[in-house]
Amino acid sequence: MASSMRMSFILFFACSLFLQGTLGEVICETLPTNLCSFAIASSGKRCVLENFQNNDGKLEFTCKTSEVAVSTMAGHIETDKCVSACGVDRRFVGISSDAFLAPQFTANLCSPACYQNCPNIVDLYFNMAAGEGVYLPALCEKQKSNPHRAMMELSSSGDVAPGPVAAILAEAPAPGIF
């Protein structure tokens, strides 16, 4: 009886060590597709949902590790509460800056429930907006005061910083003038 009790304890201890090691690590390729989007692997790289055609020609989804590294929040899986508050969808394949053109999306992203409580999603879209030359905090301020104007300025590139060619041309002397 004592040896079976000891064996049970050893088995329990071994299983708990195994579970502790596996539960603490987030690996994109092992995540279910319904948790993939807006997750960050333990390595600090974002997880992305990708689709592919299986051998039967049916569309299937898989979770992959992207090359986009996040300096904080490694091992983070976004909560359903944040996904809902920010108005994002885990089922979308790929993320596009076109989402900013939808007034409802920007309103959700800039809402206190999202902007103040969901740093992972805000960080992702902050970087995406910056890539388009838009400063997300300024867009959110405009969204609060005048949502239609914010969208008009965004779609007309009112918030877009000049690109490198425009900056070089602005500093260069006019053609023919030395």
Automatic annotation (TrEMBL):
InterPro entries: PAR1 (IPR009489)
Keyword Signal recorded: yes
Signal peptide segment: 1-24
UniProtKB keywords: Signal
Domain of life (superkingdom): Eukaryota
Protein name: PAR1 protein
Biological source species: Olea europaea subsp. europaea
Pfam families to which the protein is assigned, alphabetical: PAR1
